[in-house]
Write a structure and sequence with these properties.
Blueprint lengths: L2 H6 L1 H4 L5 H9 L2 E5 L5 H10 L4 E5 L24 H12 L4 E5 L5 H7 L5 E4 L4 H13 L4 E7 L2 E7 L9 H4 L11 H4 L3 H20 L8 E6 L4 E6 L10 H8 L1
Parallel strand pairs: 1-2, 1-4, 2-3, 4-5
Antiparallel strand pairs: 5-6, 6-7, 7-8
Helix pairs in contact: 4-5, 4-10
């Protein structure tokens, strides 16, 4: 590690749980962030500032003026740009040493099959149920830890799904794809701007813990936050032994 890197990351290196070894692990890691909006903005900025060596971004959308209320990585002069390009600009302004790969396209099954296998951790920063299920399936198939976040109106949640662990549920164990959910988005329901910052920052923290090997993750837990009343709740989540999504891949891994 170069002297300038030791200085840049010194406040992490000073942590007993992190140290030089943890920083080197992070610097050699690859994080995949799907969604470059409200959640993806703080998550990506913190992972870049922490020195994650390679960060891949996936988002098919473009920066709109209505995004600027909460999507802090974007700026007025980048309205109309692809969100991944705008986010890349913000990340490199913080840390030019980070390698950022951009995929300005929708996170469909084909793209996920290409991107997920090379990642050390996947962050789901999307805003719709169908895409979350696709991301979860890819993470289960390729045995990659998934850090999932969601925020709407005044409520947010974050969880880690890591099917490398025998007792850890996948996203579909907790939110079965067979259930019908009414799609609700910020464009129609609204969202408190700092709420996405809180949840996205927690996603970055969980991802960094996974990459550095520091502490335990939220695996097996769903953490929920209500910004109106400033209340946190954490509930335990269990693996569904008959889950149609992760069960086949766990069986393959065992054999």
């Amino acid at each position: 590690m170069r002297d300038d890197q030791l200085l840049r990351y010194s406040r992490h290196i000073l942590l007993d749980e992190w140290g030089v070894e943890g920083q080197e692990k992070v610097s050699q890691s690859h994080a995949l962030i799907i969604g470059a909006g409200g959640l993806g903005s703080p998550a990506a900025l913190y992972l870049a500032s922490a020195g994650v060596g390679h960060i891949s971004l996936v988002d098919h959308d473009h920066v709109d003026v209505t995004n600027l209320q909460r999507q802090i990585a974007h700026a007025q002069n980048r309205v109309g740009q692809a969100k991944v390009a705008s986010l890349q600009t913000a990340m490199l302004a913080i840390n030019p040493d980070v390698r950022v790969s951009c995929h300005a396209q929708k996170a469909d099954a084909a793209l996920l099959a290409q991107c997920v296998p090379t990642a050390d951790v996947v962050l789901d920063c999307t805003d719709n149920f169908e895409t979350r299920q696709l991301i979860n399936q890819a993470c289960a198939q390729f045995a990659k830890p998934l850090v999932s976040g969601a925020a709407l109106r005044l409520d947010g949640q974050v969880a880690v799904y890591d099917t490398r662990q025998a007792h850890s549920p996948c996203y579909a164990c907790v939110f079965p794809p067979s259930q019908s959910f009414e799609e609700t988005r910020c464009a129609t329901m609204g969202v408190l701007a700092p709420l996405v910052g809180v949840i996205g920052s927690l996603q970055a923290a969980e991802a960094l813990k996974i990459l550095s090997g520091m502490g335990s993750s939220l695996q097996g837990k769903l953490m929920m936050f209500n910004a109106k009343h400033m209340e946190w709740q954490t509930m335990n989540t269990a693996r569904n032994l008959n889950c149609p999504v992760c069960r086949p891949y766990r069986h393959q891994a065992m054999n």
